[in-house]
Design goal:
alpha+beta, 8-stranded mixed β-sheet, 6 helices, 25% strand
């Protein structure tokens, strides 16, 4: 059974995570590049949910298959963000790993290092379908310095409360189980299994 789903991203790390979790259910996950499509709508929403919908809707207009899109971010309590601007914040600060220096500098002298990753997935099964949303949160804290080379994005500076592990050293199967995206995809899997 090969059930096609299009994931509205060209982020290789994100794509790998979706494929690993959904492939055992018989889903084949395509990205825009697989289909020869360019789709990069302006994310003008004010919430993860709005941005996920913007991406899903734009992609669903271009393909004959159900579409998944997600928006996620890192929320650092003491900094009040970057939240929905997480990717933009990294880009504005030289990308990865340079942005780690900025985050660690901004947290100097602050006792509260609590943070959380948040993910919202939007599923559009048909062009005129009501969007369905699946959310996941991974609480933790920002480390004093980057650790490990696993994962992607901000993972090397994030310690997850559960499973009490630095994401930069966590094996992929552990991260997939406890990450914000992993938790959101689990909720999606329950829906897809019905």
């Amino acid at each position: 059974m090969n059930l096609p789903l299009v994931l509205a991203t060209n982020n290789k790390g994100k794509l790998r995570e979706y494929r690993e979790i959904l492939a055992p259910m018989g889903y084949v996950i395509y990205c825009p590049a697989d289909m020869g499509i360019e789709c990069d709508p302006e994310e003008e929403g004010t919430t993860y949910r709005e941005n996920a919908y913007i991406k899903a809707k734009a992609m669903r207009e271009l393909v004959p298959y159900p579409v998944l899109a997600d928006d996620s971010g890192l929320e650092i309590a003491a900094l009040g963000g970057p939240g929905i601007h997480t990717a933009r914040f990294a880009k504005e600060n030289g990308g990865f790993p340079k942005v780690f220096d900025r985050v660690l500098e901004d947290l100097k002298g602050k006792e509260d290092r609590s943070a959380r990753f948040v993910c919202c997935i939007c599923l559009l099964e048909k062009k005129d379908s009501k969007p369905l949303y699946f959310e996941g949160i991974c609480p933790g804290r920002i480390l004093e310095k980057p650790v490990g080379e696993n994962g992607f994005g901000y993972d090397p500076i994030f310690h997850a409360d559960e499973p009490d592990m630095d994401f930069g050293t966590a094996p992929e199967e552990i991260k997939n189980r406890f990450s914000h995206r992993g938790k959101a995809i689990k909720r999606l899997r329950i829906y897809l299994a019905i």
